[in-house]
Structures are given as structure tokens and as C-alpha cells.
Design a protein that fits this description.
Layout lengths: L25 H5 L8 H4 L12 H5 L4 H7 L3 H4 L3 H9 L4 H13 L8 H5 L22 H8 L1 H9 L7 H4 L5 H4 L2 H4 L30 H6 L5 H5 L3 E5 L2 E4 L5 E4 L2 E5 L1 E4 L11 E6 L24 E3 L10 H4 L57
Antiparallel strand pairs: 1-4, 2-3, 5-6, 6-7
């Protein structure tokens, strides 16, 4: 038999064979025929990722509760995508919905993450590949797994590729899992989430940081202004994503513009966990023509859902432009999502988040001594 080329080999660290998972035969998880004398026949029926789409099949015998939860998590199902797009389709007939579903199948549903893609290899959407010789790592790797998917909007902001980075990372060397526990990532067992913020157990600033009542702004703004408004930096905003297939049938997307902005809007989805009136909002790339490749006018109900969304940037700093001076926000129209900043065709869709001019907080008469950053440093930073 001819020797295998490097790209035909699966590189498994010998140390894996000494682990609990390494004592399980390859075929028990991946299938195939171990008695076949030829590679092609031995690989017949082999499953590359046995943890998707059914996590319980490979993991459930030993990790019953985790596998059951993972199977309903948004990492697995992306279950909020289709209802949102269908909402933008309004009362479109079934034939149009079928075209939309085809577009979503080709593009939107490729970014799921299975058990294996968080604990063994890089996600397929990030080109795959083992990160530790097939070893099963309890804690996902921030670079190869978390930000391999959550890149420009999280990874670059968090590590400082854009802006100053996040104080939790740059100063305290914290990684994603310090805040996002397995309860967060595995989900809450529900399958009816209206959006990703509807998942229970999500990380909150208040999980670690009780407002310092010695800081006047905390007392004034509590339950009225999101922490992000004062402690975030400008973040990525995308414009006008369009999807299609190239001449070879390969799926692609085009997003012509991306801009670093920080804009305050009205909270579009106030709830028990996020009751604040004022929050940061981010432009997502949904536009009426996103799926035009699959059919013209497939989103006649585009205005049924805002495309400026609640934002939670991962670029927290104690002192920011907003926190240095009250009037960097108060009376500063440039920092608010007013109607004039949107194209006329986007006004109706975003009525819930647009800030009317008469609601912009008035400029404050701040004594000169209060305009300087406080020297006292809160214990949680």
C-alpha cells in the first residue's frame, strides 16, 4: 500500500490514547469498518463529527445532561434566525418563504458549533482542524474556538485589535470562559427564544460588579442607563449584507461597509434582566435586498423588525470618553441614534430605538472639579 500523503493523515497526539476518551475505539463514535483491508472501505459510513446534529448519540451516555442541553442551545440550533427572517417576510406566500429558507440553508446555518467544535477542534466555519491532537478539553480555547467564530465583533474588540481592548483581558488576563460559563454556553434547555438575549444564565456585569454607591453616576443612572453606555468604546457596525452563490455554486456574502461607531438608542427589548431605557445599539447587516439572489422582494415585511439592535460590546474600560464628562453624553446629539442618521427607508423599522430630539438628555451644569475623572479606583477594576 502506498504511503499516505500528509493531508490524508489524521494527526492524533499519542497522549490522547491514555485519556478516558482515547480508550474508546474510533469506530464507536465515528463509525466505519475496522476490519476492512483498504482505507476507502474502512471509511465507508464514517462520520467526521459524531457530535452533530445529535449530541446525545456520541456524548449522551456519559454526559447526559450536558448533551441534552447542548442540543437545544443556540450554538447548535441557531433557532432564532429563521423566525426573525420570516418575520421580515411578513405575509409572503409559502413559495417565497421556501426561497428564503434555501438562502438561509446556504448561508445562515453554516455557523453552528457542536460539542466537538468547542472541545476538540476548530469550528468548521473557521476551517476546522484539531487544536490539541484530538484531546478533549473541558475549557474551549479562546483563540481557536471562541473568537474563531466570534471575531470582528468580539475577538478584535476584546483583545485590542481595534480600540484599547477590554480591561478584563488587557489588564486582568481573563478569557471568555471567565464570564461565559458552561451554563451560559450550553443554554437553558428552551427552544423558543425570541433572540439571543432571551437565553437565561447569560453573563451580566452585576454577576461580579455591584454598583459602587460612592460614585454618584452609578446611583443616578442605575436601571436607567446600561453599563455599556458609559464603559464601552466604539464597536463594529456592518452595512448591507448580500448573499449568493458564485459560478461554482459556492456560497458567499458581501458586506460592503463596516464602521466603528458608538451610538446610544432606546432599549428595543426591555426586560427583567435589561430594564434600562438607554442602551448601546449596533447596526446589523440585514437589509431588504439581502436575499435578492434567491428572489426579488422576499422581505416585504422588513419593517416588522429593527435592524439597529441591542449591543453588548466586549471592549469595556473604566474610563472612556463618555465617563470622563457628563456632557460628553448629555446634550451631545452626535452620540444618539437620531432619525437623521438613518436612511429614510430604515426609519419605520427602527422606530423603537430611534431617539427623538426632545428626548436627548439636556446638557448639565457641571462644576469644573467634577469634569475630571475621579481618582478613586473601584475595587472591581
Amino acid at each position: 500500500m502506498a504511503p499516505l500523503e500528509l493531508h490524508e493523515k489524521v494527526l492524533v497526539d499519542p497522549g490522547f490514547l491514555e485519556t478516558d476518551h482515547g480508550e474508546i475505539s474510533c469506530t464507536e463514535c465515528h463509525g466505519g469498518d475496522p476490519k476492512a483491508p483498504q482505507m476507502a472501505k474502512a471509511h465507508t459510513g464514517m462520520v467526521v463529527d459524531p457530535t452533530f446534529p445529535d449530541a446525545t448519540a456520541a456524548c449522551g451516555e456519559c454526559h447526559e445532561s450536558e448533551a441534552k442541553l447542548a442540543g437545544t442551545s443556540l450554538h447548535y440550533t441557531l433557532a432564532t434566525y429563521k423566525p426573525m427572517i420570516h418575520r421580515r417576510a411578513g405575509s409572503a406566500p409559502a413559495q417565497q418563504l421556501a426561497l428564503l429558507d434555501k438562502g438561509m440553508d446556504n448561508h445562515c446555518f453554516s455557523c453552528h458549533a457542536s460539542c466537538g467544535e468547542c472541545h476538540i477542534s476548530r469550528p468548521n466555519t473557521a476551517k476546522g482542524g484539531f487544536i490539541d491532537g484530538h484531546k478533549f478539553n473541558k475549557k474551549p480555547d479562546q483563540t481557536n474556538q471562541c473568537t474563531a467564530c466570534h471575531g470582528s465583533r468580539v475577538g478584535n474588540e476584546f483583545t485590542g485589535e481595534t480600540g484599547q481592548g477590554d480591561v478584563h483581558y488587557t489588564r486582568h488576563d481573563m478569557d471568555c470562559m471567565e464570564c461565559h460559563s458552561e451554563k451560559d454556553l450550553h443554554g437553558d434547555g428552551r427552544s423558543d427564544h425570541k433572540d439571543r438575549y432571551d437565553v437565561k444564565n447569560l453573563a451580566q456585569c452585576s454577576d461580579c460588579h455591584e454598583p459602587d454607591t460612592d460614585i454618584e453616576q452609578h446611583t443616578i443612572h442605575e436601571d436607567l442607563v446600561s453599563c455599556y453606555v458609559c464603559h464601552s468604546q466604539p464597536y463594529a457596525n456592518c452595512y448591507g449584507c448580500h448573499v449568493g452563490l458564485d459560478g461554482k455554486g459556492l456560497a458567499y456574502f458581501k458586506n460592503p461597509d463596516e464602521e466603528e461607531l458608538l451610538l446610544i438608542g432606546l432599549n428595543p427589548n426591555p426586560d427583567e434582566d435589561r430594564p434600562e431605557k438607554w442602551t448601546l445599539v449596533r447596526r446589523v447587516p440585514a437589509v431588504p435586498t439581502t436575499f435578492d439572489y434567491y428572489g426579488k422582494g422576499l422581505l416585504p415585511g422588513f419593517d416588522n423588525l429593527n435592524n439597529w439592535k441591542y449591543a453588548s460590546p466586549h471592549n469595556i474600560q473604566r474610563v472612556t470618553s463618555q465617563s470622563r464628562n457628563c456632557n460628553n453624553c448629555h446634550g451631545n446629539k452626535d452620540l444618539f441614534l437620531t432619525g437623521e442618521k438613518l436612511k429614510p427607508g430604515m426609519l419605520k423599522a427602527n422606530a423603537l430605538v430611534i431617539v427623538p430630539d426632545d428626548q436627548i438628555p439636556e446638557k448639565q451644569d457641571v462644576p469644573e472639579t467634577e469634569k475630571k475623572p475621579a481618582k478613586k479606583k473601584p475595587s472591581y477594576f
